[in-house]
Amino acid sequence: MFAGGGLSIHYGIVDYNAAVTNRSDENSFFIQPYVQVGAAYYLTDRIGLEASASSNSFPLHFSSFGLGLTILTGVTRNGPEGYEAPQTGKGRWVLGGQLGFFTQGTKPGVAYPEGQRTTEFSIAPSVGWFVKKNLLLGVSIPIVARWQEERSGFSYGLNPYLKKYISDNRLRPFVGGDFSYQISGNKPDGGYGSVQKAGLAASAGLAYFLGDRFIVEATLGRIYVDRSFYPKDQKMDQWSGGASATLQPGFSINYVLD
After folding, report:
1. Average per-residue pLDDT in the chain?
2. Can you tell me the mean pLDDT for 48-65?
3. CB distance 49 to 43 below 8 Å
4. How far is CA 181 from CA 41, 46, 163, 176, in A?
5. 234 and 116 in one domain?
6. Does residue 82 lie in a domain region?
7. Which residues form the domain of 144?
8. Domains: count for the chain
9. Residue 97: left (phi > 0), alpha (psi -120 to 50), or beta?
């Protein structure tokens, strides 16, 4: 049996000061809990089945259920034992990235007499280099393209980051920081032009060193602040910030080169 949970906190503010809108300034704040309970049954000493249920309300009303396969990648050793982790040696390269595709169609109706289809493709390759043992310097390049029948959108950016791995075990914590810069817009733009966005973020999590070539990471907490810059004739300004923490993170896998 196991149980876990997390908490997400967000605060944001939007300042509208433009002739193109009559909306009032906005701010938002929310706290959302997350709870998961489940059980695992091991068929062998490495392979098992895991069932879980999750909820984000209290009293608990479970909204999703899952059944998955669990594979253990190692065995427990008696007593503490250090691990050199060749992945984090000075001069080694780390490759990673994200890839996504989304499409949605709307049948003909009052809003769209001829129907409408929206398609989005995203890619964010990343590369990093260990400038010294356990200290990684890298950059990610996110690119997004969207299409509709008579309109298209785009965004691209540059996200340099710095990450520090702590301790000498296969499972070890990490802390990191990154700067993000993004440009987005639409064609035709309807006179709005493109929007630029810049931000800073700090994060912390756990990394597991799988073999000699892979790093599996889970981000457990993050805090960020960013600001959007609109064309001067719009006289509009927007900034936002937030923080989150969870015990049910997503995972990423990076490959290490010599």
Report:
1. 81
2. 71
3. yes
4. 46, 43, 18, 17
5. yes
6. no
7. 87-258
8. 2
9. left
What DSSP character marks residue 145?
A: E
pLDDT at 181 over 90: yes
Looking at 38, 72, 106, which one is the last position of a domain? 72
C-beta separation of 236 from 16 below 8 A:
yes
pTM, entire model: 0.72
- How far does Cα 74 stand from its chain's mean position? 27
State the Cα angle at 195 between 147 and 157, rounded to 5°.
75
Q: How far is CA 241 from the centre of its chain?
A: 15
pLDDT at 17 over 60: no
Contacts 24+ apart (CB under 8 A), 138-146: 138/94, 138/162, 138/163, 140/96, 140/97, 142/98, 142/182, 144/120, 144/184, 145/120, 145/121, 146/118, 146/119, 146/120
Same domain for 47 and 164, yes or no, is no
Contact present, 178 and 142 (Cβ < 8 Å) = no
Closest among 202, 159, 196 to 180, alpha carbons compared = 159
Q: Tell me the per-residue pLDDT of 102-146, one tens digit each, with 9 for 90 and over.
A: 888 777 765 666 667 889 999 999 999 999 999 999 999 999 998
84 pLDDT higher than 90: no
How far is residue 221's CA from residue 218's CA, in Å, rounded to a whole number? 9
Segment among 166-170, 192-196, 226-230, 253-257 with least mean pLDDT = 192-196
